[in-house]
TrEMBL record:
<dbReference type="InterPro" id="IPR037099">
    <property type="entry name" value="Fum_R/Succ_DH_flav-like_C_sf"/>
</dbReference>
<dbReference type="InterPro" id="IPR036188">
    <property type="entry name" value="FAD/NAD-bd_sf"/>
</dbReference>
<feature type="region of interest" description="Disordered">
    <location>
        <begin position="388"/>
        <end position="412"/>
    </location>
</feature>
<dbReference type="InterPro" id="IPR027477">
    <property type="entry name" value="Succ_DH/fumarate_Rdtase_cat_sf"/>
</dbReference>
<comment type="pathway">
    <text>Cofactor biosynthesis; NAD(+) biosynthesis; iminoaspartate from L-aspartate (oxidase route): step 1/1.</text>
</comment>
<dbReference type="GO" id="GO:0008734">
    <property type="term" value="F:L-aspartate oxidase activity"/>
</dbReference>
<dbReference type="Pfam" id="PF00890">
    <property type="entry name" value="FAD_binding_2"/>
</dbReference>
<keyword id="KW-0285">Flavoprotein</keyword>
<dbReference type="GO" id="GO:0009435">
    <property type="term" value="P:NAD+ biosynthetic process"/>
</dbReference>
<comment type="similarity">
    <text>Belongs to the FAD-dependent oxidoreductase 2 family. NadB subfamily.</text>
</comment>
<feature type="domain" description="FAD-dependent oxidoreductase 2 FAD-binding">
    <location>
        <begin position="8"/>
        <end position="374"/>
    </location>
</feature>
<keyword id="KW-0662">Pyridine nucleotide biosynthesis</keyword>
<keyword id="KW-0560">Oxidoreductase</keyword>
<dbReference type="InterPro" id="IPR005288">
    <property type="entry name" value="NadB"/>
</dbReference>
<keyword id="KW-0274">FAD</keyword>
<dbReference type="InterPro" id="IPR003953">
    <property type="entry name" value="FAD-dep_OxRdtase_2_FAD-bd"/>
</dbReference>
<protein>
    <recommendedName>
        <fullName>L-aspartate oxidase</fullName>
        <ecNumber>1.4.3.16</ecNumber>
    </recommendedName>
</protein>
Amino acid sequence: MTDHETADVLVVGSGIAGLTAALAAAREGREVTVATKATRPADAASWWAQGGIAVARGRPERFKRDVLAASDGTADPDAVDVLVENADDAVRDVLVDALGVEFDREAGGDAFDYGREAAHGEDRILHVGAATGEHVHVPLLNHLDGRDGVEVVDDAAALELIAREGRVHGAVVASDDGRFSVYAGATVLATGGIGDLFPRSTNPRGATGDGVAMAALAGADVTDMEFVQFHPTAYDAGPDEEGFLVSEAVRGEGALLRNGDGERFMPAYHDDAELAPRDVVSRAVAAEREATGEVRLDVGPLDFAGAFPGLAEKCADRGVDPAEGIPVAPAEHFLCGGVAVDDRGRASLDRLYAVGECARTGVHGANRLASTSLLEGLVWGLRAGADAAESGGTPANPERVAPPELLDRDPDLPPAFAREKFRRLRRVLGEHVGIERDPTELRRALGVLRRLKGEVDAYVRTRTSRSLYELRNATVTALLVTRQALANGESVGTHYVADDAEPAEPGPAADD
């Protein structure tokens, strides 16, 4: 492999948002390179999506009302219009017509079996059992694998954006074949979420905030980072167990939350009880766990094994009897903020785009409505990919500038170095930057994270490795979350401030 490659459009990440952007650019005749850390579909967050994908069903205004309500009135109405008005066409175009995804249908009929989840005012969620992401992501990846003009390079981590004078020219990528630059007419970040920053998360491993951090370090605007959504019903795994998400669709079918005393508690917290917005349910579950020792999801009111065989199998693998209730706890689930983009996915730097969870489109505001993440990735992926294809300059001949100098002057660090630093970072965010925030605790976290980033930066100056750069990205992203949480003294959506102290000055940006 040479020390550089070229592409009309470079996509960093291989979830539904990134793959859809690649598809849209390829449809315009562009040469597309997809560089992804994933080595198999399950390494991408889209693969893990259980609930489904919401559509408007020809009634976008109703859909918009629910998105705005779930966001506590903080979502950008114009961005929500883009989502709901393009929802039906985007799903039909890509998932139904191009990929032939077999969404569940009503028994004995051809009509789709639309589901409902928390904060939706009507049944509008297309699904494939409780494994929708898998059934969408794999066909999309296969479709692109067989398409001319698209190269998917897996197990390849982007380390730095190649940026000069407000314009992005590609990225430096590390793979098993070495380190090389990919020069591109347009670069689309689709790197997913930040789950690895927290002790408990529904994200796959490797969700270290890479796209957010790289964009911030290059000078792009990053906003709303305090709005980190926790899912209320992740399996309460033990120290040697692998956790899993218990889909919101289970509550949509009638499952109830009960505390350690066996009492159903959600009606006391919200009129919509188990189907209240996620931030409300997450805080309620956390409070009841602290007060009574545990919370279990009572699936007795439904045919759990029949409706959710995949989840029933996960329970059986862990020796959990659903008849006794599934032990659950909140877990970090989705970043509502990220790289600030417009209705075409364009970031504040020229030729840079962001889509999916690493992007802040404005759709989610302070809290995401259930089953809108796949849809947002699909809608913005199509729009960003098409726009990137148009703005990418001369096909296959992007401008090449000097890439950032990444040094290897010193010996590699032992593998335990990054692991120990990650443990420290997760402990800080879990204890001080979780479901409830206190300004004093946030200041304490900010001090620890600044020192941690200083340590990591000292090593990055003389060493280059994927694990070290992932750690750097995680510390940058953690600082952004903490600083923006500290600057926002108002409790809204996923950002819940424990007292009414005045917000602090945010201080310097990504290179703190």
